[in-house]
Amino acid sequence: MARNVEFDEQLAVSKAMDVFWKKGYNGASTRDLTEAMGISNSSLYNTIGDKHQLFIKAIKLYTESRMNSATKLLQPIKSPLKAIEKFVNASVYAITNEPNSCLAIKTTFEVAISDEAVQRIIKADNDFTYNLLINLISKAIELKEIRISNDAEMLTDYIINQFTGWHESFIIHKDKLRIKKMAEFLIRQISQ
């Protein structure tokens, strides 16, 4: 009697996520994905579905893991300003040390423009970051840790948009020091 091989879907999706992260949605072939996952085409279609369904699972895994990591990272920090600084510095580390840049940003420009399902996932990820930061900024303003502005919404948008620019700068220049200096400047600005 043939033995059924157990299929660890989360591990397989994680391996596919790495392929999408490196090659992009359009650059990743079904063969690239199934080879990385260690499964056949028929196993892919029978367990997960097509390439698009696999991509949806992969981008969800990526964004949900980022959300969980950010929550765990910031939870023990009492000062809202210190939590913002930690988040900015963690973002700088990710920007300058992840070899394939940010999968969410790549996906935004490659796929989310024309794919509503992907756009919803990316928007949920952005909304999470926005809500996390606006809550911290609002508390920091209330505690007078931030005095540069009382406009929490504008400061939140400003910080989030810095991350996208830093990703672009690092992709082009590969200069870690440049990104770190911009982050230090941003922290000095909001700490005034």
TrEMBL record:
GO MF term list: DNA binding
Protein name, UniProt field: Transcriptional regulator, TetR family
InterPro entries the record matches: Homeodomain-like_sf, HTH_TetR, Tet_transcr_reg_TetR-rel_C_sf
Gene3D superfamilies found in the cross-reference section: Homeodomain-like, Tetracycline Repressor, domain 2
DNA-binding region as annotated in the record: 29-48
Record domain HTH tetR-type: where: 6-66
One Pfam family this sequence matches: TetR_N
Protease among keywords: no
PANTHER family the UniProt entry points to: TRANSCRIPTIONAL REGULATORY PROTEIN
Species for this entry: Olivibacter domesticus
Keywords, alphabetical: DNA-binding, Transcription, Transcription regulation
